[in-house]
Specification:
It is a single chain. By secondary structure, this protein is mainly α. The chain has a domain of 282 residues. It is built from 29 helices and 8 strands. A 4-stranded parallel β-sheet has the order 2-1-3-4. Strands 6-5-7-8 form a 4-stranded parallel β-sheet, with helices on both faces. Helix 28 links the parallel strand 7 and strand 8. Helix 27 packs across helix 28. The chain is elongated. The chain starts with 14 loop residues before the first helix and ends in a 5-residue tail after the last helix. The model has no long low-confidence stretch (mean pLDDT 93).
Length: 701
Amino acid sequence: MNEQITRPILWNVPVAFIVIMYGLLGLLLAAFVYAGWRWYRVVSLGQAGENRFDRMPRRVMLMLRDAIGQGYVIRETWGWMHYAFYVSFIGLTIGTTIVMFNSDLREASKFLFGYDLYFYYGDFYLFFKAAMDTFFLLLVTGVLFEFFRRIVRRPTVLNRPPEEKVVDNWENRLGYWFPMTLMLLVVVTGLMLEGARINALHPSFTEWAYLGRQVGALEGALGAGRTFHRWLWLVHVLLVYSLLFCFPFTKLRHFIFGPLNLLFRNLGPRGRLAPIKDFENAETFGVSQVEQYTWKQLLDMASCLECGRCTINCPTVNTGKTLNPKYLVIEQREHLLQKAPTLLAAKATAKDGGEAPAWEGPDMITEVATEAAVWGCTTCGWCEEGCPIGIEHIQRIVDMRRNLVLMEAKFPQQATNAFKGIEVQGNPWGLAQEKRAEWAQGLDIPEMAAVEDPSSIEILYWVGCAGSYDERNQRVSRAFSSLMKQAGVKFAILGREEMCTGDPARRLGNEYLYATVAQQNVETLNRYKPRRIVTQCPHCFHNLKNEYPDFGGSYEVVHEAEFIAELIKSGRLKPSQAINERITYHDPCYMARHNRKWDGAREALRAIPGTDVADVELSKNRTFCCGAGGGCFWKEEHEGTRINQKRFDQISGAKPRTLAVGCPFCMTMMEDAVKSRSLEEEMRVRDLAELVAESTGTQIK
């Protein structure tokens, strides 16, 4: 390669300017160390929590995939814009590093390796300059479109919490405007600097810096020369360092904290709640003070980039309720920053044996978060699905509920009956436990207690409370049982030995009640050692599969949709009677989003002759909540629009004749929405099992 095709590095730059550059580099490194130490002290105020240092190779790979790949960013509207200046900034950083390596580290490479690693010439140089100009162009485009988005479009996802809940500091004053403006100025002066060099040196070869050449021609026409280039270099360097100083001290902090938060993300099932450890000796339950959160939860707060993706499909945000997951995490972070000096002083005083200063600021639950926000969450998981940096919202909210319930005995009045019903009768309706199996009368379904050899049972059918007691969902239980009989499945139920999994109690914060019933259920199940458990309730599925292992119960659990699809695929069920209708399947949050299961239901529906299965935009992992999750089924919905009405409007856009569901609570919420519009004649709501039974000609008693 031609070594003449290159450019002199640090050409026309006085020694004094170079000293300034390296002096600022030293200050920058010191600033990063200081900011890192400061945030480490704040995050370390949190509790130990679960192990987030396990499976580190997998953590690193996932972090690289999502931080560098930006998959969670670009899938949303305008995500390409962020990706444009993210990729270009990374590219320009790599380019600067290459220049530094070929300049400052050239002699070091000769000394250490005995070889001149200089490669900044020839074809590489030409391609390098073209790439740098492309990155310049991408960065300018991305920043300008972001300005347009924030000034002209002003989407609601970018709204901020009330001013009184935000700390008045430089980070919040500067916002994203200051660093983005610096990005633009760095790019513009960088292009001008490149053009000034080309104009002053007039290289004998054709530069591939296609933008720099044009800028240089313009500068030459205006009479710019070496002096202009020299002072422009200093201005550019000062702007670059101003931008770099923004990373530890402004909202660009997420560029560092985001990947770090992804590294320590939850690798378990989404939506799984951590149990309270050592109930017997714990002095407090749940979280009422910000420092009672784990260090990872405090890191979540520090990492939030305020993009608002957590709100895009949040059911409470989209129906005008108090809870806004973006606002909540920001407000709790601001509260943490306000309280941190007091906590750090108390920590230091405790070491010296002195009296710790008292916190006299706002209460985290009642004044920072507010109880309306705490009780509004349906735990549907969209906030965690949408977040590009792995913030775990649900556990943080449930932790506050646990404190209110277990320490303050404060919870929605309507939840009282559900708690009492689970405690006394093993179901939230409070109906007699002796009647749990009455739905199965005349169906000749054995109970496990009466089976001589429990190991001979192929399937333990976990009916759930709704399937056992709710009249509408009893029809689903009978349909599903009839399907299994038709398929020749050898199954049994627990009958009166089955109790509520405790899901409503746990999501509403009554962890003690949940632990009690979970332990009883685990003892029962472990006694029978079922080969497989099948249930039509996604909430039962989630608890049995993902949360009971914490209580000593590990089982193979299958949802009815997956099991029916399996029976059809194996030929044990053969849908033959046509249902000539358009059908839209409403994905339950606890199956599709939390457990990534959505194919089985569609496979089963498409196996029915004549069906036109039409998905709505918000389906599968992007499904919209029906409003029943998080224990909200057991309390009144007072604020804004009803969530089930919002979901019904979305589904109506597909114009289905039948709305198919795979959850007893979705069944109730969707039927209520249909009835509230008096549309029973135009749209019917059916469980998947009922539709397959209709097609197979199964006789349901």
